[in-house]
UniProtKB/TrEMBL annotation:
Pfam families: TPR_16. This is Uncharacterized protein. The lineage of its organism: Bacteria, Pseudomonadati, Pseudomonadota, Alphaproteobacteria, Sphingomonadales. InterPro entries: TPR-like_helical_dom_sf (IPR011990). SUPFAM superfamilies: TPR-like (SSF48452). Gene3D superfamilies: Tetratricopeptide repeat domain. It comes from Aurantiacibacter xanthus.
Length: 105
């Protein structure tokens, strides 16, 4: 699950890197941006998604949980074009991650 933002101030959420399969570049960009905006849910969700692609489900879950708890909250556009509250998007990403882990066992 990748997220874009619906805010007046655009933040780089490494969407292009993620959609092009450049996971390492996405992680580097997201971590750098997160240092400036540690509560930003789009950054946290996309970082979780990048780590999920890399196979680190625990790290991914940690970022999704941080996004769900973040005091920062706004509408995000999901990869399928749906707009959703950032906390709901984070919880959805976490459920999807957990379901994929169960399905693999």
């Amino acid at each position: 699950m990748m997220a874009g933002m619906n805010t007046d101030q655009h933040r780089d959420a490494a969407y292009e890197e993620l959609t092009q399969g450049e996971t390492d570049a996405a992680i580097a960009r997201l971590e750098a941006n997160l240092a400036q905006n540690p509560e930003d849910p789009a950054l946290l969700i996309n970082l979780g998604s990048a780590w999920a692609v890399r196979g680190d489900k625990d790290k991914a879950a940690g970022y999704y949980r941080a996004a769900a708890r973040s005091d920062v909250r706004y509408q995000l556009e999901l990869a399928d074009g749906e707009w959703i509250d950032s906390r709901a998007a984070a919880r959805l990403a976490l459920r999807t991650l957990e379901q994929s882990a169960v399905a693999m066992n």
